[in-house]
Amino acid sequence: MNIKYLTSKKNKIIAMCVVVIIACGTGVVFAIRDTSPGLRLKKDKFTIEYGKHFNPTFNELVNTKDLNVEDIHYLQHNVKIKSNVKNEVETVINQDGTTSEKDKGYAKVGDYKITLTYKNKDITVAVKVKDTVAPELTIPENVEIVQGTDLATFDFKSLITATDLAQLNDVQIDHSTVDVNNPAEYTAKASIEDINKNKTEKEFKITVVATDSNVEITTQIVTDPATGQRKSVVTTKPKINTTTSSSSSTNNGNSSNNSSNSGSSKPSTGGSTSSSTGGSSGGSTSGNTGGSTGGGNSGNTGGSTGGNTGGGSERPKPTTTHWIKCKLCGLLIESNVSLDDAFDKLKSKKCEVDGYIYEGITAHSSYSYGSRQN
C-alpha cells in the first residue's frame, strides 16, 4: 500500500473502513486494500495528420473523469510518460554560409509509441502520423501554342505551381490528344504526386494557333497582372515589307547630250552665213572665227554643259512610309524606318477607350497596317 496516499484525513478514513477482520483458527488476520486511483486512458491509439502539432501530455492521455482533485493530483505525480514522437527538422543555410537544423513543429510520417509507467507497470499508446492531403496544383485554364510546336520540349513547368508539406515528384503532362499540326482546341492533363503517394490531377486546354505568312507569330510566357499567374500566349506582329526603287540617270544624260548636239550645229550655220556676206577676207576670218570659235565653243559648251547638267539633275528616290493603326483606340503611327519600328512605337503608347485603359497583351491587340510610297 502506498503510504503517501494515506497522508490526507479522508483517505485514512477510507482505508480504515476497509479493514477486514477475519477470524481464522486461533488468530486474527488484518487485510488492508490499496485505494489509490486506477489509471485509465482516453484512448490507446492516436492518428495524427502530417503537419499537425502533437504534444503527448498527461491531460491528453489520461482519463480523469469522475476523479476528485486529490486523485488527479496523485496520478499527475506518479504516472511517468515517455514518448519517441520527435518533430521533423529541415536543414537551412545561414547568412554566413553555415548550415543548421530547424524544427518544423510536427513529426514526420511514421509509427510512434508513448509509454505510461504507473505502479511499475507499462501501458503503451500507439501514435500514427499519416499524410492524406494531396498537393495543391495551379495551372492556367488555357495554354496557347504556335502550330508545329514540339510539346516534348515545351516548358510547361514554368506555368505550373505545386505546393505540399511533403517532398514532391516531377509534374507529369499528358498531351497525347493534342495534334500540334492541326489548329484547334484540345484537352490535356497535368498531375503531380508527393512521396507519400498523394496525387492531384487537373485538366486544362491547349489551343494550337495557326501560322500566318503575313505576320510574325511567337509563343510567349507572360504573367497575368490580375492574378499573378504565369500563362502562355501567342503574339503576332506584321512582317517587314521591303520596297526597292531605281532610277536611270543615263537616259537623262543622253537626252541632254542629244539636245547639246543639236544646238552645236547653229554656230556652223551662223559662221557660213557671215562668210558669204562679209567678203573673202572678212568671210574667211569671220567664218573661221564664227565657225571655229563660235560654233566650236558653242557646240562643245552646249554639248558638255547640257550633257553634264542633264545627267546630274535626276529625280529624288521615292520614300516609303509605313503605318499601323490600332482598331481599339484609333491611334495611328507612321514610320519612315520600318513597319517594325511603327509597331514598336504603337506598343509604347497608351491604349485608352472611353476612359478604360487596355494594359499588357490587350493593349493595341487589334490593328491594321500597311505601307505607301511618297
Question: What labels would you give this structure?
Answer:
four-stranded mixed sheet, alpha+beta, 25% helix, Immunoglobulin-like, 35% strand, 5 domains, 374 residues, elongated
What does this structure look like?
This protein has about 375 residues and is α+β, with helices and mostly antiparallel strands. About 25% of the residues lie in helices and about 35% in strands. The protein folds into five domains: about 1-35, no CATH class; about 40-130, Immunoglobulin-like (Sandwich); about 135-240, Immunoglobulins (Immunoglobulin-like), CATH 2.60.40; about 250-310; about 320-374, no CATH class. The chain has helices at about 10-15, 60, 70-80, 250-265, 265-280, 280-310, 340-345, and strands at about 20-25, 25-30, 45-50, 80-85, 85-95, 100-105, 110-120, 120-130, 135-140, 140-145, 160-165, 170-175, 185-195, 200-210, 215-225, 230-240, 320-325, 330-335, 350-355, 355-360, 365-374. Helix 4 (about 250-265) packs antiparallel against helix 6 and helix 5 runs antiparallel to helix 6 (about 280-310).
**Low-pLDDT residue intervals, each spanning 5 or more residues:** 17-33, 242-311
What is the second-level CATH architecture of the largest domain?
Sandwich
CATH class of the largest domain: Mainly Beta
CATH fold assignment of the largest domain = Immunoglobulin-like
Count of strand segments = 21
SS-based structural class? alpha+beta
Distance between the termini: 117 Å
What is the CATH superfamily label of the largest domain?
Immunoglobulins
Share of helical residues? 25-40%
Q: What is the beta-strand fraction? A: 25-35%
| Count of discrete structural domains | 5
Principal-axis shape: elongated
Order of helices and strands: HEEEHHEEEEEEEEEEEEEHHHEEHEEE
Count up the helices. 7
| Average pLDDT for all residues | 76
Major β-sheet profile: 4 strands, mixed
What gyration radius follows from the Cα positions, in whole Å?
Answer: 52 Å
The strand line-up of the biggest sheet is 3-8-7-4
